[in-house]
Structures are given as C-alpha cells and as structure tokens.
Amino acid sequence: MEKNSNRLEVLKCQRCNRLFVPPRYGCPQCAETQFDEVTLSGKGRIMTYTTIRVPPSGFENQVPYDIAIIELPEGINLTARLAPKNREEPKIGEEVNFLRKEGGMYWFGC
Questions:
Q1: What is the largest distance, in Å, between two alpha-carbon atoms of the chain?
Q2: What is the span of the domain harbouring residue 24?
Q3: pLDDT digits over 18-36, tens only?
C-alpha cells in the first residue's frame, strides 16, 4: 500500500473477507495472514469528531483542526482528519468523501 495515495485502500482477509485498516499481521476474526488490498468507495459519514485547539508538538501551525471517526458503508470505521469547507463546524451524521491519504493519515472533505 502506498504511504500517500488518492485511493482509499484497506486490507481484506483472504479467508473470511473481513476488511480492516493496516497495519495488521493477522486477521482479528480468523487469524489468517494472507490479505488482498481493496479500494473502497470513499464515501462515509461522521460518527463523532473533536476539534484540536491545543496541539501536540509539531502540529502547532495547524490548529484548530478536526479529527473524526468516519463510518464507511463497507462496514469499517476510520480515524481521519477533516477538511471542512470554509471552516464550518462538522456535524455528526454528515456525509463526507475521501480526499487522500497523506503521511499515514486519511483525509475526508465535508
């Protein structure tokens, strides 16, 4: 899997077809160690979010920024950064679209 990508890719267990976000060394459901990469739709909705105002070291120039749990229709959840339009407040249940994966972080637009 590419570190930076414009495709939303996850791993799929070859035995039980469970989807999950890497890194994983064994399927948490059946312990299989063989996986396929699959590209998901990139559609999702905000389950919950928080706005970071006091950042960890190295992120001082990015505040405020939003981190969300995104529920995907394929049955998995991702932690992601939000790129809201015009710095509007995100809303629980709001539909979002995958933008990119950058530096190991998923980005969604709302």
A1: 44
A2: 9-39
A3: 998 888 889 989 999 999 9
